[in-house]
Write a structure and sequence with these properties.
Ribosomal Protein S8, Chain: A, domain 1; three-stranded antiparallel beta sheet; 2 domains; binds nicotinamide-adenine-dinucleotide; alpha+beta; Hypothetical Oxidoreductase Yiak, Chain: A, domain 1
Amino acid sequence: MSDMHLISLTHLQDAMRLLVRGFGSQPDEVEAVVCNLIDANLTGHDSHGIGMLPRYAKSFLEGGLSPNTGVRVVLDSGTLLRLDGQAGFGQVVGAQAMALGIERAQARGSCIVALGNAHHLGRIGAWAEQAAAAGLVSMHFVNVISRAIVAPHGGADARFGTNPFCAGVPLPGRPPVILDFATSAIAQGKTRVAHNKGVAVEAGQLIDDRGQPTTNPRYTVVPPFGALLTFGGELGGHKGYGLALMCELLGGALAAGLTCHEPADGRMRVLNGMFSVLLDPAALGGTAAFEDQAQAFLDWVQASPAREGFGAVQVAGDAERSYRAARTQAGVVVDNTTWGEILEAARSLGVDPGAVAAAAGVN
Ligand SMILES: NC(=O)c1ccc[n+]([C@@H]2O[C@H](COP(=O)([O-])OP(=O)(O)OC[C@H]3O[C@@H](n4cnc5c(N)ncnc54)[C@H](O)[C@@H]3O)[C@@H](O)[C@H]2O)c1
């Protein structure tokens, strides 16, 4: 069997629909989960794509993930919404939370959405894209309830998750600017891939179980655990740490009422808390100046000549769009370790792994 499988988009969708039905999900939920995860693969973020399904299956079998669940409105004061995701698929409750917030922001100018108890929300950029498609600016601060994996700047062990920050700005006549990243120096999924391949990661991103710098990815994958550093690394990590802290305070404490502050309990669930601000730029007045100045600024920064070793200057969101265009045509490459884990997840859900492999066209 080859180390890599190139799977066309339609084959991958068919295969993942089979697998996700194994959660007992209704057809709309199957589509939401499959489309969102595959879109993460298409946009270049394999760490948040179909490779998450084995983790979701373990979480479900332990009772940590509740299929066919929607958001419950806990508080609704017009432009403030507090929502309980009820441990439903993040792909479903995230979209519902955004849809509710979008409706309010379009009617009233702005809305703050506090979403707690959502199972893994996947690629947070998907939520900013949903808001941008409705003409709204958005910001999202997200915390992660799972085994802590990132060390505070200057700290010797892991105390929180890869807490992502995301912001989106729609502009007429050009694709939206979508900034979306983990506040760790490197994504957790990337260290797992490096560990599986037996290769080192770049210096300045990890510490070992004694708090010493290391390039060995094992320290985030198998015990004894070390930690990821925050982005900025050894020198500038206080900046990534500061943003991670705000994600925990806003996404965790304020929005979800749940922060990471205890040793791991061994459960496989991944919960996200998300604090989102949605704004209709027109409601703030000065639309023409906003659009003209934003366009002028983006043109100006992109006119900077490329430094040696770099391509043309991009803005946030370009990378995902270019991956999406290429992979939609070419298909998605899935490594054999991940593929094996996906088939095992199918088996654990009572789905015939042979049927999943056949639907994907993988022998
Ligand atoms: N749900 C969760 O618990 C969770 C936790 C952590 C991360 N995530 C997700 O993981 C994904 C990956 O995060 P990451 O930190 O690996 O992302 P990353 O390091 O690939 O950074 C992505 C961001 O940088 C921009 N970018 C990339 N190259 C650029 C360039 N040359 N010039 C300008 N901008 C550029 C992209 O457009 C994007 O906005 C994100 O979608 C994030 O939401 C989710």
